[in-house]
Amino acid sequence: MICALLPSISAGLSLEKFSEGFKRPIDLQVAPGKKDVLFVVEQHGVISTIDAKTGEKKDVILDIEDRVSRKKNEEGLLGLTFAPDFATSGEFYVNYTDRSPQNAMSRVSRFTMKPGQAKVDASKEEVLLSYKQDYRNHNGGWLDFGPDGMLYIATGDGGAGNDPKGRGQDMNSLLGKLLRIDVSGESGYSVPGDNPFLGKKDVLPEIYAYGLRNPWRCSFDTESGIFWSADVGQFTYEEINAVHVDDLKGKNFGWRMREGKNKNPKSDIAGPNPEGAIDPIYEYTHGNKSDEGLSVTGGFVYRGPITDLKGKYVFGDYATRRIWTLDTAKNYQFADISDSLQPEGKLTGPIASFGEDHEKNLYVVDHTGVIWKMVK
After folding, report:
1. Half-sphere exposure of 119 (CA within 13 A, CB side)
2. Strands 77-82 and 143-145
3. Total number of domains in the chain
4. Residue ranges of the alpha helices (H) in the chain?
5. Is 295 inside a domain boundary?
6. Residue 317 lies in a domain
7. For 190, which DSSP code?
C-alpha cells in the first residue's frame, strides 16, 4: 500500500557530500577490525580506502583492472565482502566479470591482506568460482557472509532480455541464483551439508535459492535475520524481497515465470506461482512518478543513529534517483523521502548502491563519483 510522504521520517534529513572523485564507484564496504577506513569499489577494477571520519581518500589496496572486463555498461568489479575473521585472516572476496573472449566469465575470488600491508599483491588471486555469462549484462555481483558464516552470492540470469535461455529456472546453471558456499577451509570452498540440493541429480549443489533476474544489491539484517533482495525488472515491475534466512532454503523467486507478483506475459514457462515461490513484499511499476522508477537498487534496514529511520528498509532507483523506505514494523508501509534528502543539491548521478559504516550510518554511492552520507 502506498502512502504519502511521512513528515516524521523526512523532517531534517539530508544527504551530505562525504567523499568524491571516484571513477564509477559501485560499492561501499567496511572490514572487521578496520574502523578507521571505509572501502570504495570502482567498477573498472580498483578498491580504495577513505577515512571513515572525513571521507579523505587514502590508499589503493587492490588494482585488478588488467583482468576486469568493462566492455559493456553492467560489467566490471561488482562486489566486495570481507571475511568475518578478516582482522586475523586478512581474507576478502570479490565478484567481477573477467576478460574472457566473447562473453565474459564471472569470477568469485579470494585475496589476502597481510598484516601491515598497504596494498594487496594482485597476483595472489585464488579463483573460487568461475561461470560463463550468456551475454554481457545481468551479472548480479553481490556477495556477503550470512549470519551462519557461509558466503552467499547473488547471480544474474546471464543477460539479453527476458532470460532467453531460461537460466532463472535452470537448476544445472549457476545463473539467476542465490548461491551458498563454505570458504572456511585453507583453500577452495566446500558445499555446506545442509544446502537444499546437495546430492540431487541434475542440480548444482551450490544453489540455495533460484528464480532471480538481476539482483542488484542484497543485504542481511542481522537484528531480524531477514535477507533482503532487490531484483531489477524486465517489462513493468521492480521488486523487493524480504525472507527470513531460515525460510530461504530451496525457495523460488519466480523469474521468468513472473515479474514481481505478476505472470510474465512473454514467458513460455508456466506461472505465476511456481513451487516453493517467494512473493515480493513490495513492487513498483515503471514510470517517473514519486512511487515509480526504472531500475531498483537495494539497500539496508536502517540501524544507525537517526531515530526516525530505525527499522526502515531504505532503497532507491538507479535511474530516477528516488529514495524510499519500507517500515518493517508497519507491514512494510511505503514512504518517499527523496525530496527532503536533497537540499544540498540533487544527486549528480544514478544510485549505484548503498553502504554502511561501523556505526550503521547510511551512505549513497553515486555512480558518477560521489559518496553521500545520510544525516539529520
Report:
1. 11
2. unpaired
3. 1
4. 7-10, 86-89, 338-341
5. no
6. no
7. B
Among residues 151, 35, 33, 17, the alpha carbon closest in space to that of 94 is found at: 151
Among 324, 329, 363, 366, which Cα is nearest to 238's?
324
pLDDT, tens digit, 9 for 90 and up, residues 272-314: 677 778 999 999 999 999 999 999 999 999 999 999 999 999 9
pLDDT for residue 316 is more than 60: yes
Q: What is the DSSP letter of 9?
A: H
> With contact defined as beta carbons under 8 Å apart, do 159 and 134 qualify?
yes
d(CA 278, CA 256) in angstroms, rounded, equals: 13
The model's pLDDT over 217-263, given as tens digits with 9 standing for 90+, comes to 999 998 999 999 999 999 999 999 999 999 999 999 999 999 999 99
Please answer whether residues 301 and 311 qualify as being in contact, where contact means their C-beta atoms are separated by less than 8 angstroms: yes
Look at residue 2 and tell me whether its pLDDT is greater than 50: no
pLDDT in tens, 62-84: 999 999 999 999 999 999 999 99
Do the domain assignments include residue 331? no
Each residue's pLDDT tens digit, 337-363: 998 776 455 677 999 999 999 999 999
DSSP state of 150: P
CA 352, chain centre distance (Å):
10
* Residues 240 and 253: beta-carbon distance below 8 Å: no
In a domain, 320, yes or no: no
Q: Which residues neighbour 276 within 8 Å (Cβ) at sequence distance 6 or greater?
A: 250, 251, 252
Report residue 49 as a C-alpha cell: 580506502
Give the range of the structural domain holding residue 364, as residue numbers without chain letter.
19-287+300-309+349-375
Q: What type of residue sits at position 160?
A: A
The residue behind cell 561501523 is 358
Average pLDDT over the chain reads: 93
- Tell me, what CATH number does 34's domain have? 2.120.10.30
Q: How many residues does the chain have?
A: 376
